[in-house]
Amino acid sequence: MPAILGSGEHRYRVVDNFAKLPAGWQLTDVASVAVDSKDRVYVFNRGAHPMVVLDRDGNFLRSFGEGLFSRAHGLHIDADDNLFCTDDGDHTVRKCTTDGKVLLTIGIPEKPSPFMSGEPFHRCTHTALSPKGEIYVSDGYGNARVHKYTPDGKLLKSWGEPGTDPGQFNIVHNIATDADGWVYVADRENHRVQVFDGNGRYETQWNNLHRPCALCCCGGAKSPTFVIGELGPGLAINRKVPNLGPRLSIVDAKGNRIARLGGEDGPGVASGKFLAPHGIALDSKGDIYVGEVGVTNWDTSFPDEDMPAAVRATRCLQKLERVRE
User: Fold this and answer.
1) How far apart are CA 111 and CA 114, in angstroms?
2) pTM
3) Which parts are the NHL repeats (predicted)?
Protein backbone atom coordinates (compact mmCIF):
# COMPACT_ATOMS: atom_id res chain seq x y z
CA MET A 1 0.00 0.00 0.00
CA PRO A 2 1.24 3.53 -0.75
CA ALA A 3 2.36 5.51 2.28
CA ILE A 4 0.00 8.11 3.75
CA LEU A 5 1.48 11.28 5.27
CA GLY A 6 -0.20 13.88 7.47
CA SER A 7 -3.47 13.81 9.36
CA GLY A 8 -7.00 15.19 9.35
CA GLU A 9 -7.74 17.41 6.37
CA HIS A 10 -4.11 17.32 5.35
CA ARG A 11 -3.52 13.69 4.40
CA TYR A 12 -1.48 12.82 1.33
CA ARG A 13 -0.92 9.55 -0.47
CA VAL A 14 2.58 9.07 -1.90
CA VAL A 15 2.50 8.29 -5.63
CA ASP A 16 5.45 5.95 -5.96
CA ASN A 17 7.48 5.97 -9.21
CA PHE A 18 5.64 9.06 -10.44
CA ALA A 19 7.92 10.26 -13.27
CA LYS A 20 7.85 8.16 -16.45
CA LEU A 21 10.89 9.23 -18.46
CA PRO A 22 12.24 8.09 -21.82
CA ALA A 23 14.55 5.10 -21.61
CA GLY A 24 17.99 5.98 -20.29
CA TRP A 25 17.02 9.43 -18.98
CA GLN A 26 17.81 10.58 -15.44
CA LEU A 27 16.63 13.62 -13.54
CA THR A 28 19.37 13.49 -10.88
CA ASP A 29 18.78 16.42 -8.48
CA VAL A 30 15.41 18.13 -8.96
CA ALA A 31 16.08 21.66 -7.78
CA SER A 32 12.57 23.02 -8.29
CA VAL A 33 9.16 22.33 -9.77
CA ALA A 34 6.26 24.41 -11.09
CA VAL A 35 2.76 23.64 -12.38
CA ASP A 36 1.06 25.62 -15.16
CA SER A 37 -2.60 26.44 -15.78
CA LYS A 38 -3.12 23.08 -17.52
CA ASP A 39 -1.58 21.12 -14.65
CA ARG A 40 1.56 20.34 -16.60
CA VAL A 41 4.51 19.80 -14.29
CA TYR A 42 7.83 21.52 -15.05
CA VAL A 43 10.77 19.72 -13.48
CA PHE A 44 13.90 21.93 -13.27
CA ASN A 45 16.69 19.44 -12.75
CA ARG A 46 20.45 18.97 -12.97
CA GLY A 47 20.43 16.13 -15.47
CA ALA A 48 21.19 16.28 -19.18
CA HIS A 49 17.72 17.68 -19.91
CA PRO A 50 17.32 20.61 -17.51
CA MET A 51 13.59 21.20 -17.97
CA VAL A 52 11.45 18.09 -18.21
CA VAL A 53 7.72 18.56 -18.69
CA LEU A 54 5.25 15.93 -17.46
CA ASP A 55 1.49 15.67 -17.28
CA ARG A 56 -0.12 15.29 -13.87
CA ASP A 57 0.07 11.50 -14.21
CA GLY A 58 3.82 11.65 -14.71
CA ASN A 59 3.83 10.98 -18.45
CA PHE A 60 6.67 12.62 -20.36
CA LEU A 61 5.66 15.45 -22.70
CA ARG A 62 8.88 17.19 -23.73
CA SER A 63 12.11 18.75 -22.52
CA PHE A 64 14.07 21.92 -23.16
CA GLY A 65 16.99 23.93 -21.82
CA GLU A 66 19.76 21.68 -23.06
CA GLY A 67 22.85 23.86 -23.52
CA LEU A 68 21.13 26.85 -21.91
CA PHE A 69 21.09 26.24 -18.18
CA SER A 70 24.23 25.68 -16.13
CA ARG A 71 22.85 24.54 -12.75
CA ALA A 72 19.15 24.49 -12.03
CA HIS A 73 18.12 26.03 -8.72
CA GLY A 74 14.80 27.91 -8.60
CA LEU A 75 11.60 27.88 -10.66
CA HIS A 76 8.50 30.07 -10.46
CA ILE A 77 5.56 30.27 -12.87
CA ASP A 78 3.31 33.31 -13.24
CA ALA A 79 -0.39 33.64 -14.05
CA ASP A 80 0.41 33.76 -17.77
CA ASP A 81 2.44 30.53 -17.60
CA ASN A 82 5.78 32.28 -17.96
CA LEU A 83 8.61 30.42 -16.25
CA PHE A 84 11.20 32.25 -14.13
CA CYS A 85 14.25 30.00 -14.06
CA THR A 86 16.96 30.79 -11.53
CA ASP A 87 20.36 29.38 -12.45
CA ASP A 88 22.85 29.57 -9.62
CA GLY A 89 25.55 28.10 -11.84
CA ASP A 90 25.72 31.09 -14.18
CA HIS A 91 24.16 33.71 -11.84
CA THR A 92 21.09 34.55 -13.90
CA VAL A 93 17.31 34.57 -13.88
CA ARG A 94 15.68 33.78 -17.22
CA LYS A 95 12.03 34.36 -18.02
CA CYS A 96 10.95 31.71 -20.52
CA THR A 97 7.84 30.52 -22.30
CA THR A 98 6.62 27.00 -21.62
CA ASP A 99 8.44 25.77 -24.71
CA GLY A 100 11.74 27.32 -23.66
CA LYS A 101 11.90 30.61 -25.55
CA VAL A 102 13.86 33.13 -23.45
CA LEU A 103 11.93 36.39 -23.03
CA LEU A 104 14.15 38.15 -20.48
CA THR A 105 17.51 37.56 -18.83
CA ILE A 106 18.47 39.29 -15.57
CA GLY A 107 22.12 39.07 -14.66
CA ILE A 108 25.17 38.47 -16.82
CA PRO A 109 25.81 34.80 -17.56
CA GLU A 110 28.99 33.50 -15.91
CA LYS A 111 29.75 36.95 -14.44
CA PRO A 112 29.07 36.80 -10.69
CA SER A 113 29.25 39.87 -8.52
CA PRO A 114 31.97 39.86 -5.84
CA PHE A 115 31.28 37.56 -2.91
CA MET A 116 28.99 39.19 -0.31
CA SER A 117 29.18 42.52 -2.14
CA GLY A 118 25.40 42.95 -2.11
CA GLU A 119 25.42 43.53 -5.86
CA PRO A 120 23.37 41.14 -8.02
CA PHE A 121 24.04 38.24 -8.48
CA HIS A 122 26.32 35.75 -6.79
CA ARG A 123 24.63 32.36 -6.96
CA CYS A 124 21.05 33.57 -6.91
CA THR A 125 18.51 31.03 -5.69
CA HIS A 126 14.85 31.78 -6.49
CA THR A 127 12.23 34.33 -7.67
CA ALA A 128 8.74 35.54 -6.78
CA LEU A 129 6.45 38.20 -8.23
CA SER A 130 4.61 41.07 -6.59
CA PRO A 131 0.93 41.65 -7.44
CA LYS A 132 2.16 44.29 -9.93
CA GLY A 133 4.53 41.85 -11.62
CA GLU A 134 7.70 43.16 -10.01
CA ILE A 135 10.36 40.48 -9.68
CA TYR A 136 11.98 39.56 -6.37
CA VAL A 137 15.18 37.53 -6.51
CA SER A 138 16.76 35.82 -3.51
CA ASP A 139 20.52 36.03 -3.90
CA GLY A 140 21.54 33.50 -1.68
CA TYR A 141 24.85 31.57 -1.67
CA GLY A 142 27.41 34.26 -2.46
CA ASN A 143 25.26 37.14 -1.23
CA ALA A 144 22.78 37.74 1.58
CA ARG A 145 20.31 39.91 -0.32
CA VAL A 146 16.89 40.21 -1.86
CA HIS A 147 16.70 42.27 -5.07
CA LYS A 148 13.55 43.84 -6.47
CA TYR A 149 13.18 44.46 -10.22
CA THR A 150 10.62 46.04 -12.51
CA PRO A 151 8.74 43.56 -14.73
CA ASP A 152 11.18 44.37 -17.55
CA GLY A 153 14.27 43.71 -15.43
CA LYS A 154 15.39 47.08 -14.08
CA LEU A 155 16.76 47.00 -10.53
CA LEU A 156 14.60 48.96 -8.07
CA LYS A 157 16.18 48.21 -4.73
CA SER A 158 17.97 45.57 -2.64
CA TRP A 159 17.94 44.69 1.04
CA GLY A 160 19.64 42.34 3.47
CA GLU A 161 23.12 41.57 4.76
CA PRO A 162 24.86 38.62 6.41
CA GLY A 163 23.91 37.91 10.01
CA THR A 164 21.25 36.65 12.38
CA ASP A 165 19.32 39.81 13.24
CA PRO A 166 15.97 40.74 11.67
CA GLY A 167 16.54 41.58 8.02
CA GLN A 168 19.85 39.72 7.94
CA PHE A 169 20.33 36.38 6.22
CA ASN A 170 22.38 33.21 6.46
CA ILE A 171 21.72 31.62 3.06
CA VAL A 172 18.65 33.33 1.67
CA HIS A 173 17.44 30.25 -0.14
CA ASN A 174 13.90 30.77 -1.37
CA ILE A 175 11.28 33.49 -1.72
CA ALA A 176 7.50 33.70 -2.12
CA THR A 177 4.80 36.37 -2.17
CA ASP A 178 1.07 36.51 -1.52
CA ALA A 179 -1.81 38.42 -3.10
CA ASP A 180 -1.39 41.28 -0.61
CA GLY A 181 2.23 41.82 -1.59
CA TRP A 182 3.96 40.41 1.50
CA VAL A 183 7.34 38.86 0.80
CA TYR A 184 8.35 35.63 2.53
CA VAL A 185 12.02 34.63 2.60
CA ALA A 186 13.41 31.23 3.58
CA ASP A 187 16.45 32.17 5.64
CA ARG A 188 17.74 28.62 5.63
CA GLU A 189 20.68 28.42 8.00
CA ASN A 190 19.01 30.81 10.44
CA HIS A 191 16.18 28.23 10.68
CA ARG A 192 13.42 30.74 9.97
CA VAL A 193 11.21 32.37 7.37
CA GLN A 194 11.30 36.17 7.47
CA VAL A 195 8.35 38.29 6.35
CA PHE A 196 8.75 41.73 4.73
CA ASP A 197 6.55 44.28 3.05
CA GLY A 198 7.06 44.92 -0.65
CA ASN A 199 9.80 47.46 0.04
CA GLY A 200 11.86 45.24 2.30
CA ARG A 201 10.63 46.47 5.68
CA TYR A 202 10.89 43.67 8.21
CA GLU A 203 7.54 42.59 9.63
CA THR A 204 8.00 39.32 11.53
CA GLN A 205 9.56 35.87 11.36
CA TRP A 206 8.41 32.27 11.60
CA ASN A 207 10.41 29.98 13.83
CA ASN A 208 10.30 26.30 14.85
CA LEU A 209 11.61 25.26 11.44
CA HIS A 210 14.68 23.23 10.57
CA ARG A 211 16.69 24.58 7.63
CA PRO A 212 13.68 25.79 5.57
CA CYS A 213 14.66 25.24 1.98
CA ALA A 214 11.55 25.11 -0.24
CA LEU A 215 8.71 27.61 0.09
CA CYS A 216 5.37 27.63 -1.73
CA CYS A 217 2.41 29.97 -1.19
CA CYS A 218 -0.96 28.37 -1.89
CA GLY A 219 -4.51 28.18 -0.56
CA GLY A 220 -6.05 31.24 -2.21
CA ALA A 221 -5.83 35.01 -1.81
CA LYS A 222 -8.13 35.31 1.22
CA SER A 223 -6.51 32.63 3.36
CA PRO A 224 -3.08 31.75 2.01
CA THR A 225 -1.22 28.79 3.39
CA PHE A 226 2.39 27.84 2.84
CA VAL A 227 4.14 24.54 2.29
CA ILE A 228 7.71 24.60 3.56
CA GLY A 229 10.29 21.98 2.67
CA GLU A 230 12.77 21.51 5.51
CA LEU A 231 16.16 19.88 5.16
CA GLY A 232 17.42 17.37 7.68
CA PRO A 233 20.62 17.66 9.71
CA GLY A 234 23.74 18.80 7.88
CA LEU A 235 26.30 17.87 10.53
CA ALA A 236 27.74 14.50 11.49
CA ILE A 237 27.05 15.16 15.17
CA ASN A 238 23.27 15.38 14.72
CA ARG A 239 22.85 13.27 11.60
CA LYS A 240 20.77 10.59 13.33
CA VAL A 241 18.78 12.83 15.66
CA PRO A 242 15.00 12.27 15.17
CA ASN A 243 12.34 14.94 14.54
CA LEU A 244 14.60 17.23 12.52
CA GLY A 245 13.44 16.24 9.04
CA PRO A 246 13.72 16.17 6.13
CA ARG A 247 9.99 16.94 6.00
CA LEU A 248 7.25 19.25 4.80
CA SER A 249 5.42 21.67 7.09
CA ILE A 250 2.14 23.38 6.20
CA VAL A 251 1.57 26.71 7.97
CA ASP A 252 -0.99 29.50 7.88
CA ALA A 253 -0.30 33.14 6.97
CA LYS A 254 1.00 33.83 10.49
CA GLY A 255 3.36 30.90 10.44
CA ASN A 256 1.27 28.69 12.71
CA ARG A 257 1.72 25.03 11.87
CA ILE A 258 -1.32 23.31 10.38
CA ALA A 259 0.27 19.98 9.50
CA ARG A 260 3.60 18.24 9.19
CA LEU A 261 4.44 15.54 6.67
CA GLY A 262 7.19 13.04 7.42
CA GLY A 263 10.62 13.53 8.89
CA GLU A 264 10.23 11.90 12.29
CA ASP A 265 12.83 9.23 11.63
CA GLY A 266 15.21 11.00 9.29
CA PRO A 267 15.81 10.70 5.55
CA GLY A 268 15.32 7.67 3.34
CA VAL A 269 14.26 6.34 -0.03
CA ALA A 270 11.30 4.29 1.23
CA SER A 271 7.80 5.45 0.36
CA GLY A 272 6.80 8.25 2.72
CA LYS A 273 10.33 9.46 3.37
CA PHE A 274 12.20 12.45 2.00
CA LEU A 275 15.81 13.03 1.08
CA ALA A 276 16.25 16.80 0.72
CA PRO A 277 13.13 18.84 -0.22
CA HIS A 278 14.32 21.76 -2.34
CA GLY A 279 11.34 22.87 -4.45
CA ILE A 280 7.57 22.58 -4.04
CA ALA A 281 4.53 23.21 -6.26
CA LEU A 282 0.81 22.41 -6.09
CA ASP A 283 -1.59 21.62 -8.91
CA SER A 284 -5.25 22.62 -9.26
CA LYS A 285 -6.40 19.63 -7.20
CA GLY A 286 -4.11 20.40 -4.28
CA ASP A 287 -1.63 17.63 -4.99
CA ILE A 288 1.94 18.45 -3.97
CA TYR A 289 5.03 17.98 -6.14
CA VAL A 290 8.35 17.90 -4.32
CA GLY A 291 11.74 18.34 -5.97
CA GLU A 292 14.65 17.01 -3.94
CA VAL A 293 18.43 17.34 -4.20
CA GLY A 294 19.00 13.82 -2.99
CA VAL A 295 22.11 13.26 -5.10
CA THR A 296 23.93 16.30 -3.72
CA ASN A 297 22.74 15.54 -0.20
CA TRP A 298 23.44 11.78 -0.24
CA ASP A 299 26.90 11.86 1.30
CA THR A 300 25.69 14.21 4.03
CA SER A 301 22.83 11.94 5.06
CA PHE A 302 24.32 8.54 4.19
CA PRO A 303 28.13 8.83 4.20
CA ASP A 304 28.64 5.07 4.57
CA GLU A 305 26.04 3.85 2.07
CA ASP A 306 26.07 3.50 -1.70
CA MET A 307 23.47 5.60 -3.47
CA PRO A 308 20.68 3.53 -5.08
CA ALA A 309 20.42 4.00 -8.84
CA ALA A 310 16.83 5.21 -8.43
CA VAL A 311 18.01 8.37 -6.68
CA ARG A 312 19.75 9.55 -9.85
CA ALA A 313 16.96 8.36 -12.10
CA THR A 314 13.61 9.63 -10.80
CA ARG A 315 13.48 9.42 -6.98
CA CYS A 316 14.29 13.13 -6.56
CA LEU A 317 10.79 13.99 -7.78
CA GLN A 318 7.84 12.99 -5.60
CA LYS A 319 4.10 13.48 -5.94
CA LEU A 320 1.86 13.56 -2.88
CA GLU A 321 -1.79 13.11 -3.84
CA ARG A 322 -4.25 14.74 -1.47
CA VAL A 323 -6.61 12.22 0.11
CA ARG A 324 -10.10 13.51 -0.59
CA GLU A 325 -12.44 10.84 0.77
Assistant:
1) 9
2) 0.97
3) 128-152, 160-199
